[in-house]
Input
Amino acid sequence: MIPARIASSLAVCALLVFAASGCASFRGGELAETTPWPPVASPTKKSVSLVLAGGTVSVNGNPTDASPMMLQQWREKVEKTYADSSLFSAVLPESAPADVRAEVHVSDIGEGSMGLAFLCGFTMFIIPATAIDHFTMKTDFKNANGDVLATIEKSDSSRLWMQLFLVFVMPFNWPPSVGEELFRDLSRATLADAHGKNIL
Amino acid sequence: MTRSAASVWGGETVPVSESLARAVTLSALCAAVGCVSVPTGTSLEAAQLATVSVPRGAWLAPTLITDPSAKEVVELQRSLTLAIASYTSDAKYFSRVNLLPGNLRPEEVVLRFGFDRYQLRREPHPAYFPAAILTLTLYIWFGGPIYRDKANLSAELRVQDAAGQELVRVSDSFQDERDVGFFSPDYVFPSTIKARTNLIRSLLDKAVGELARGAPATTH
Output
């Protein structure tokens, strides 16, 4: 029988270990920063309708579904960047008639070691584990007649590390924030290219 | 799996970690209540080249999902519409494929997909509990089936001309059952991608076949 005092100390230790477990995401840096941002908008702004779908989504080569929650998060991030760009008179949902339609396909190829992940958890995050997401955003810009004006593809990656002492890095490389920045930058680079091709 | 951390700790999730959190929740729910509906996605397999095609353009109307058990229907419909459009375009069933609204040419057609069943259910495999206990969990470690995933999809495709007159109406359904062990890729990430793609391909094959023959028809 373990005395109550030792048991409670063990429980506190376990809680601390779990609470202090660290994780942090780091960008791959394949995508150059888009400057200047926002681009100089043309005097006559066009409206855009936006639709997004999950393209290839896989984990260690096994195709998997992009869940509705993931799709919603991705679309909201892209939509926000389009709205913030000041390039459009309006950013509309896919069902609304617009001057330009942007059809965005997002692919996420994920790779990670299951064995290392098991060890990481088993050793209370002493042994680190890592996984990487390769994102590709392919956007078809079309006019109201359905003609393709341009197809633009941008890629970048994000690597997640998990280790106890990453708790100190976590505030600066918080995975959801890194993911948000990645989508923002992919969308910005896409819009800058489209703007450079004079289709916006 | 390494990506769980962000899901557990973040109010918002990074993509694959979200999938993992979903899988863990599903596993827990499955163990607790016996059977759960899995939130289905909209991804499709890479398109196979169509065996029959027609030399006219097609416009895809927003896809409808009327299955009352489906969750996040609006997001699913949005994404599925574009996924089907891309698949149809890549498979080259039509000379070009676009999403409505838009300016149709007189010879172009409108495709209307509607799903009345859009389900993936996960339940414990009947052998799991007794076999795992009797073998002191060796059953699990040697890959014995833990779950049984059941996909149940049913859909209809209506093809209309530019004036709105119905040319073809086809419907089909697809059921799929698979056992999932600890080492199966579906263990963490259950999906209906294969079943969904098969159903959509079947509907397109039938409808475009009818269009190519030029005879309005209803097939099942």
Observations:
- Strands of chain A lie at 23-27, 46-59, 62-63, 88-93, 100-112, 129-143, 148-162.
- The first strand of chain A starts at residue 23 and ends at 27.
- The helical segments of chain A are 4-20, 68-84, 114-122, 175-196.
